[in-house]
Design goal:
Radius of gyration: 22 Å
Strand content: 25-35%
Number of domains: 2
Number of helices: 5
Distance between the termini: 41 Å
């Protein structure tokens, strides 16, 4: 792991975008500092999402433990719901604590699996087994209604803890604040995305924009994918895994 300040990121971007000396405040500068800072935050948020989707764990956080719901979302349903965590960009896992033992829930292998976990199924010896996002939320005018996560089937007791990717807190305007990277290719991707943001709208910089795309694509290949146990075991492995899910 290593860090770079916002100022260091801007220096690297300005060199590759060939805009050294063109960033500042006022009408004499081609690029306003606040806009470049905004690019830094937006592209870093993009990088965090990319590496998390690829299975890397650096930016995951655990939410506070809470009691599992023990009633159905509605009469006759076979699952319960919990609130989508505030400020989370993505949910990457849910653990449950029952009878003094933590275990992880299975993320549904597609929405079509939602009816495969009924509490009257003879193989369902532990409850719950799985989770999936029901809704990421909704908006109406200025109001955001939080989303929900389904827990399948309805729990009978215990606690749960959600693992999520939190949103990035902007550091625009603070040149000494830090970005965190696992390795060089993460930084390269972040820089390349910044160069793209600077050059893509400039007719005189399309060649540099094209080179930045190539740099970004090469960084994505270098980042690769982290394949952890949570992405290795599918439905076919459930009966082989002693920790979960069927008896």
């Amino acid at each position: 792991m290593f860090t770079r300040t916002l100022a260091q990121w801007k220096t690297r971007v300005s060199r590759l975008a060939d805009i050294v000396g063109q960033i500042g405040t006022g009408s004499t500068f081609r690029f306003q500092t606040e806009i470049i800072d905004e690019f830094g935050d937006e592209t870093y948020r993009r990088m965090r999402g990319l590496v998390t989707r690829k299975g890397f764990r650096e930016f995951r956080v655990a939410q506070a433990k809470a009691a599992l719901p023990t009633t159905a979302v509605s009469t006759g349903e076979q699952y319960a719901t919990v609130a989508y965590p505030t400020g989370a960009i993505a949910v990457v896992g849910i653990d449950v604590l029952q009878s003094g033992r933590w275990r992880r829930l299975k993320h549904l292998d597609g929405w079509g699996e939602r009816r495969d976990h009924q509490d009257n199924h003879p193989a369902e010896t532990e409850r719950p087994y799985a989770w999936d996002v029901i809704s990421h939320g909704s908006v109406a005018t200025t109001v955001l209604t939080p989303g929900t996560i389904g827990i399948f089937p309805i729990p009978t007791s215990g606690d749960y803890m959600i693992w999520s990717l939190p949103d990035w807190t902007n550091i625009a305007g603070n040149d000494t604040y830090l970005f965190l990277y696992r390795e060089q290719c993460w930084f390269d991707y972040h820089v390349a995305q910044g160069v793209l943001e600077c050059c893509i709208r400039d007719n005189d910089a399309q060649r540099r924009a094209s080179l930045a795309r190539d740099m970004s694509d090469e960084a994505v290949i270098a980042i690769g994918e982290f394949t952890g146990i949570e992405t290795e075991d599918g439905v076919g492995s459930w009966t082989r895994d002693v920790e979960h899910f069927h008896g």
